[in-house]
Amino acid sequence: MSHIFSDVSNRIVRSEIREILKWTRKPGVISFGGGLPDPDLFPLKDITDITKNVLDQKGYLALQYGPTKGEDVMLEALVKHMSEFGDEAALEEVAVTSSSQQGLDLLSLLYLDEGSPVVMELPSYLGAIQAFKRCGADMRGVPLDEDGMDLEMLKKTLTELKEEGKKPRFIYTIPDFQNPSGITMSLEKRKELLQICIEEDIPIVEDSPYRELSFTNEILPSLWMLSGKKGVIMLKTFSKVLFPGMRMGWLVGEPDLIDKMVMLKQSVDLCTPSFNQLILAEFIQMGKMKQTIDNAIRCYRPKSAAMLNALEKYMPDQVSWSKPSGGMFLWVKLPESIDTKEIFMTAIEHNVAYVIGRPFHCDSSGNHTLRLNYSFPSIEQIETGIKQLAETIKKVL
Amino acid sequence: MSHIFSDVSNRIVRSEIREILKWTRKPGVISFGGGLPDPDLFPLKDITDITKNVLDQKGYLALQYGPTKGEDVMLEALVKHMSEFGDEAALEEVAVTSSSQQGLDLLSLLYLDEGSPVVMELPSYLGAIQAFKRCGADMRGVPLDEDGMDLEMLKKTLTELKEEGKKPRFIYTIPDFQNPSGITMSLEKRKELLQICIEEDIPIVEDSPYRELSFTNEILPSLWMLSGKKGVIMLKTFSKVLFPGMRMGWLVGEPDLIDKMVMLKQSVDLCTPSFNQLILAEFIQMGKMKQTIDNAIRCYRPKSAAMLNALEKYMPDQVSWSKPSGGMFLWVKLPESIDTKEIFMTAIEHNVAYVIGRPFHCDSSGNHTLRLNYSFPSIEQIETGIKQLAETIKKVL
Hints:
- 2 copies of one chain form a homodimer.
- With 397 residues, chain A is of the alpha/beta class.
- Chain A contains 14 helices and 14 strands.
- The termini of chain A are far apart.
- In chain A, 56% of the residues are buried.
């Protein structure tokens, strides 16, 4: 049987990262490769008790079809959760998604045609690049400074696009503890970015999976709030701050945009599991979410410090890295002559794994970069693994 | 802020059905409108116990990210489940989806470009029409006979397409207890359809959500099995046979097609909740699925009989209906002069609701048709509601 596949499916290629991540399973290898939360933080007892309650009291609702926009109790819980981190939203400004990746999917369906220009950070989140690539988007990268997107380069990119007669459908940014870089956008830059977007009439997509995981007491105002809740769509998820296994995310935006994405969601999965929504809604309403996030911060802060210390202690001078104040990742730049994909197997021989940086670049640059995760490994593994990584790099230098 | 939306989002319109279904919530109205399983069948106690077990024994796995293709234990359980209903599949021929609607989404992404021809039954499943429409597919409808798709009309449609220089990307069919019609394709027609598809080199999509719900002891061989597991993709779900609230579906097909759809799934939601997968896998492995389905059949068979009896008893001569031997729906044809949308409010005045037939037709025909659901209402409600519906129809005739 011969198959005629779509243009979409022809754009999808197997991920380079998945191919090499197989090696991280080699016994003895310390992996900084994944993006997994520490499973010791999972509130198993609470979830067990709450599930029993939900099935006892609302079982008929939990196992039935639910509204595409999300269960009312979940929408209310999401609004409550956000308010604890400085973000206000009305119920009509929020919709549940089956993971934040689905948020990216809906966003892509809403905005992107083949060739649609999109501006994003260099580096940026892999899953976003994948979703935009599927739609055939024309992705333009803007480098990151230590305080977020290089706004002079952004202006230059917008001018270039204008000269080509093009306008970005949106600017995609991860302002808090960015994946993969760990970098946070400063308040000044947030304001300036918004100003640029108002002047140029371009919507912003604020991807915000790590926002709650601040190691200092500071959380900067979101673009959503700074914008007066206009022209910004925020993507949220519990995968990083709680656990990924229920695939629960949500969208925040102006009601008419939320409406449109809910209509698109109908064709995508009809609705997100009510079972999972009712459990997490109760978890939030009981005040358990805040508590779990505090635990996560208490767990990840020392891990991050341990990684920074080990890098300081072992890495040769030619290597630099970001200093995240939250989140799960840290970004390393090697001398430009070194291709992190080429030396990956040498690292595996030294029993350490990372994620290569290139796939995080929409322009396929970043050969000499890599991402390290510190949320999953133990502090001991971090110390040993970074030492082994430094040895790898010294060997190839 | 001005937004430039995609062609995709411009194709999506609010569903006519959703707009009128609001009325079914009017107090006193008996609704045959939804497609909901009877919640009294939900095995709440079993799911509570199994969830506790899963979190106790595999909590770290259940709440973590899982493989895009699905958890191994789930894939094994799906293969076991299918084998109990006559369908064989190897593990590499199966992939988990977050609902069968996601299966339709992935299928659309795999095959459909704007203008791609697709052949489907008249009437057919609304969610499929919605997914294909989103991609801008050129949908061609083939009428249903009492024993399934009219194959002479199918041949005619294929000839017409050929004359236009076109070939369908696939033929979409629901052979068992079809939604919305309740009709089952005969064994002879299944064989002939396969023969046509082999000769014309066209893949078949076999949507199979109701297959397990046979009121007789007979389940006909699936197209998947009759084809020798070649050229057929089967879509499955637990939403109808168990409950919809965990949004758990799966795809069955040749390994290279499954691979491609799993790659597409990465950009759609990364993975289906491991939590839900581990719970349902244990449910199946404990033999509980078969037991729940037997209960569902024992519940729906008399409801279906009650509806058929009431139709026989109350409906005027000009009205005809299908006689389903399984599933959840029954299809009614009124005289062509009557538009079921126009008389809908009269039905509401008579305290009864149905789903209008037109949205189930990819060619917007079927004004005089309607769908009745018998799984959700009680036998008493069925008797009373059909009487009220007959009164409505007599009034407008």
